[in-house]
Design goal:
heterodimer, A: alpha+beta, 9 helices, globular, B: mainly alpha, MetI-like fold, two-stranded antiparallel ribbon, 13 helices, 2 strands, flat
Chain lengths: ~350, ~290
């Protein structure tokens, strides 16, 4: 098992023409930790990962791995394993040869390469497919081989560049959990880039939310979800209702409910309230009308419209939602989960 | 009764898509199968009966020399065309698909690859022939005799002129293989520790080798079957097989050698079949990766 290596990105700047992809990004990753960079397209997360890999150069800033400054070290000398979005396996090599490729480059003997490839294929559950060519595997299997290939060289850092985005939903969830299991097993420091918030929250030790080249917040998935530091994080991670609110000391008053306000809240504006914090109670005298009900399996999302036209999204168990029908009048109660109040747009 | 009608409908449904192939199959029959059968039958005939005379004639010095020169001409222009064409395609692939350079090179390659025959031969004669513009310039200004002993009208000249269409043909047929190379393969190799040379030798070359060799064989077949350029350039003698076939068919000196032409044509068919078999083996090898 790898004991992990600390990684530091220090004040990285990167521009493409007039577009600033990274704007002073600083990120510390602890040994053996999995950090996920999450953000919309063009936020700079892939640029950060590619600079760490050495595939791109920063305009300024520093890349440190295990205490060593690798800023000007070429990519092939950085000791990193990388899994790409898709189609990165060498098509002319078998699965086992792909996995052993990095070891061959490092001058390992055939016996060592064969043994290590076998171990890696066992790790990803593809030991029976060693003699096949990549084209004979499914997308999920190919990404497992790519993961095995990246880990075979026992890299200091594992880099995952949206490795699941080309896969269908079911395989994505399976492989996501498998990547996390393997990462915990080998203990390699890992940077994972994705635009999928569910994926990020499911696998990360910490999630860093990026926007316009900057790190808006980095925190554990629970903290990020329950205590977003900025309006962008609150709105990008999970769904949020925007409900008029006023702040009285450290309490936000939202639709008559008194709820703790998160640090950094504005004095007045809109509170960002999670759908699961909205309780819907059937009440003929209620202030809202049910307009849509979306069945999501165990949960259902119910959209209600207040008499003033404000739309409120609630999330409740499907067994409770079954009692509601379109046009029902409902009363809305809010849970006392702390909320962030931001200035109204 | 109903079953029979159902079976008829099923048969019609199965046959209907194949109807579209009928013109192609007719084309193959008329322009490939029948001529091949005629050549095969004619090669083993003399004066209306079975004979090995013409096949034996292929062992004569003149026939063997012509075959050797044909193979040399085709092989050398295939190799020169493949190497230079691949380098040119590699340089072109670095440019954006919409760039003027790339579009211009691809378009011009398409034109030059199809340019052959009398016009090409004349272009070279007008350039470096005995009174060609470049020959005259070198002769009068530099005192150099480019013409020499008339090499342009012999095998060296044919090699040079054939390269004129072989190189652009290579650009056209090899470019798709280069376009299929994914940047992720280089990045994956580099992150695994590969130097540029290791990426080139251990990833790029093995990936491109089947396409390169396949294209080289295609160029060989293209040169081997070419006739018009050589016929326009070489008026004396028959240094290559296609010109020897012409001589057997049209010579006013040696009459009654039509069946030798069949035998020579059969020899060419055999060589092309060998080339195509090799090409098929290469395709089968790379097909394992592409299945």
């Amino acid at each position: 098992m790898n004991t992990g290596t600390p990684v530091q990105l220090v004040d990285l700047e990167r521009s493409y023409g007039g577009v600033r992809a990274l704007d002073g990004l600083t990120l510390d990753i602890s040994p053996g930790e999995m950090v996920v960079l999450l953000g919309p397209s063009g936020c700079g997360k892939t640029t950060a990962l590619r600079i760490l890999a050495g595939l791109e150069q920063a305009n300024s800033g520093q890349v440190r791995v295990g205490g060593a400054d690798l800023t000007n070290t070429s990519a092939n000398k950085r000791d990193m394993g990388m899994v790409f979005q898709a189609y990165s396996l060498f098509p002319h090599l078998t699965v086992a040869e792909n996995v052993a490729f990095g070891l061959k480059l490092h001058g390992r003997s055939l016996a060592v390469r064969t043994k290590r490839a076998q171990e890696m294929l066992e790790l990803v559950g593809l030991v029976q497919q060693g003699d096949r060519y990549p084209v004979q595997l499914s997308g999920g299997q190919q990404q497992r081989v790519a993961l095995a290939r990246a880990l075979a060289i026992e890299p200091a850092v594992l880099l995952l560049d949206e490795p699941l985005s080309a896969l269908d939903a079911k395989v994505r969830v399976q492989l996501r959990d498998e990547i996390r299991r393997i990462q915990l097993e080998v203990g390699t420091t890992t940077l994972f880039v994705t635009h999928d918030q569910e994926e990020a929250l499911a696998v990360a030790d910490r999630v860093g939310v990026m926007n316009a080249g900057r790190l808006e917040q980095i925190a554990t998935p629970t903290e990020l979800y329950s205590s977003p530091a900025t309006p962008f994080v609150a709105e990008f991670v999970g769904l949020s209702n925007r409900l008029p609110a006023a702040v009285d000391g450290d309490v936000a008053v939202v639709m008559g409910n008194r709820i703790p306000a998160l640090p950094g809240s504005a004095r007045a504006g809109v509170a960002l309230v999670r759908p699961e914090s909205v309780r819907l109670v059937a009440d003929k005298l209620g202030a809202a009308t049910v307009t849509t009900i979306a069945f999501l399996g165990a949960l259902s999302r119910v959209t209600c419209t207040l008499d003033d036209g404000t739309t409120v999204l609630g999330q409740l168990g499907s067994s409770d939602a079954i009692a509601l029908t379109l046009g029902d009048r409902v009363r809305l109660d809010l849970a006392t989960t702390p909320v962030l109040v931001v200035p109204a747009a | 009764m109903a079953t029979a009608r159902g079976g008829g409908v099923l048969l019609r449904r199965r046959l209907a898509p194949a109807l579209g192939l009928v013109p192609f199959l007719a084309y193959l029959l008329i322009f490939l199968v029948i001529p091949t059968v005629v050549v095969l039958a004619g090669a083993f005939q003399e004066k209306g009966s079975f004979s090995l005379t013409n096949i034996d004639a292929l062992k004569e010095a003149a026939s063997r020399t012509a075959l050797g020169k044909s193979v040399l001409l085709s092989g050398s222009t295939a190799v020169i065309g493949a190497v230079l064409g691949a380098v040119l395609a590699w340089l072109v692939i670095g440019a954006r698909p919409t760039s003027l350079l790339r579009r211009a090179v691809v378009s011009l390659s398409g034109v030059f690859a199809q340019m052959g025959g009398v016009s090409l031969a004349f272009a070279w004669i007008a350039t470096i022939g005995y009174s060609g513009a470049v020959t005259n310039f070198f002769r009068s200004h530099l005192g150099i005799d480019l013409w020499g002993n008339g090499w342009l009208y012999a095998l060296p000249g044919l090699i040079l002129v054939y390269c004129y269409f072989q190189i652009p043909l290579m650009v056209i047929v090899f470019l798709p293989a280069l376009e299929g190379i994914r940047p992720q393969w280089q990045e994956a190799a580099v992150t695994l520790g590969a130097s540029k040379w290791q990426y080139f030798s251990q990833v790029l070359v093995p990936l491109l080798r089947p396409a390169f060799l396949g294209c080289t064989l295609l160029l060989f077949a293209n040169a081997f079957a070419a006739y018009a350029t050589a016929a326009a350039l070489v008026s004396q003698g028959s240094p290559i097989v296609p010109l020897m076939i012409r001589q057997a068919l049209t010579s006013e000196v040696v009459l009654g050698r039509q069946h030798l032409a069949y035998a020579l044509a059969l020899e060419m068919v055999v060589v092309v079949v060998v080339v195509m078999v090799l090409y098929g083996l290469l395709i089968r090898r790379s097909a394992k990766w592409l299945r």
